[in-house]
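Input/output pair, single chain:
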Amino acid sequence: MMAFSFYTIYAVKILGMDNLTVGIMTSILFITQTVTNPILGWLADKWSRKWILVFGGVCTVISVLLALLIHDPVWFALSFILYGIANTVYWTIGMTLLLNSEI
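Output:
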């Protein structure tokens, strides 16, 4: 997840993204987190916290790979969407997993 911190810097320096597009990407990130938080919480309660964490790990890997492969700023939003899902999984589901001893 350390790569997430550098997505915006990479997008500006390498992809040449302007300030407006970076703001839109940040909005996409926050909207993704807001929408996926209750959905993933519900899925974790109904299905399995462990498998939701695995899903978050898969989103992390795909997000990093897409960030490396995508050179179009418009499609770079996919990396931000997957980053938002992964961040939600780690912070929301990961915290509840620590508080609950069952997996």
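The chain has one domain: 2-99. The two ends are 22 Å apart (CA to CA).
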